Amino acid sequence: MTTPTPDLGSQDPERRNSPIAAETDEDTEVLRQEIPPEPVCYFNDEPYSDGTIVKSGTALLRCDKGLWVSAGSSDPTNP
């Protein structure tokens, strides 16, 4: 049985959150240099282990060593 992807909504700026970057974003490498690699990503104070995929709005995000990166769209009409 497949576990459903958690739908987390939007990040609350008042809570602990790891940055979100597109994998092709030129700023991603700068973010990686500024943020020490972590085994978890935070989303509204909740830790998620490296490799976890979550849904935020219509975006799928994957935890990649303390940084959320785009994992595609959760909208079936816009892959």
Shape: globular
Chain-averaged pLDDT: 84
Structural class: mainly beta
Determine the strand fraction and express it as a percent band.
25-35%
The strands making up the biggest β-sheet line up spatially as 1-6-5-4
Give helix and strand order, one letter per element, not per position. Answer: EHEEEEE
Q: Estimate the helix proportion, in percent.
A: 10-25%
Number of domains: 1
Strand tally is: 6
Tag the structure with descriptive keywords.
four-stranded mixed sheet, mainly beta, globular, 10% helix, 79 residues
Q: What's the short story on this structure?
A:
The protein has one domain. 10% of the residues lie in helices and 34% in strands.
Which helices and strands occur, and which strands form pairs?
Blueprint: E1 20-21, H1 27-34, E2 40-43, E3 46-49, E4 53-56, E5 59-64, E6 67-73
